[in-house]
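Lecture notes, unit on protein representations.

Consider one protein chain, 270 amino acids long.
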Amino acid sequence: MYCNSAVPVKYGFIVRNWNFVQKWPSSDLLIVVDSASLDRIFCDPDGGYELPAMIINIDHHKSNVRFGAMNYNDENASSACEIIYNIYEILKVKITRAVAETLYTGLYSETGGFVYPNTTSDTLRIAANLVRQYIKPDLVVKQINAKTVNGTRLLSKVLATIELRNGIGTMYVTKKMIAECRANMSDTENFVSFLMAINQVKVAIFLREQNDFTRISLRSNCQIDVDRVARKYGGGGHRLAAGIKMQTPLKKAMKAILLAVRKQLNDINN
């Protein structure tokens, strides 16, 4: 459910993802999907946007602030796509092949290929229904996991930055590394899973240098709630997976997050 623009619908706009909307289009209805708060939608939250009278908020993050006039927030859902499938069922709307592929992509991605703890019997039921009626999962998954040559070269550089100490694993990517590999920031999606796959890692921290800020992905093996860490720095997400955008240089951001994670681990152990 990721997109870098507002998507027109019959009566308004659907916005997916955050920090991309440069100029707000005139509309009566705004449907926000998979964002915990409105300030994760706009490039400039203080830009004086004139919002539509009706906002519908569809999300599954624990950190959601219920900003909509109508809120459909289910923390137990694996993904926003799972919620949207349920909406289709409730309204008895026919699912097309294109919609089915999008929903399956969201289910697969948000559950790490149906292996993360957020995978439930409902998640698998929905996936099975989509496969039974509409799609070929092998073709969808092949597209999801497709890598570029430059992205693979970048991965080798990122893996070389891995450091592991007392159960906390870190790795990072810089703008220079991306330029050297002629890659794109989008190539780094899911890189954090390589760090989390290491046996000794209890918490994975992946930092991405972007212009004047650092984006941080946090993953946990259940022992620590990374959403609590993320919220301290204006981010959020789930207990086992969360993200932060810090207006801080990469090295300074890493130092701050490491301190926060170590403190929570120490609190748990003591």
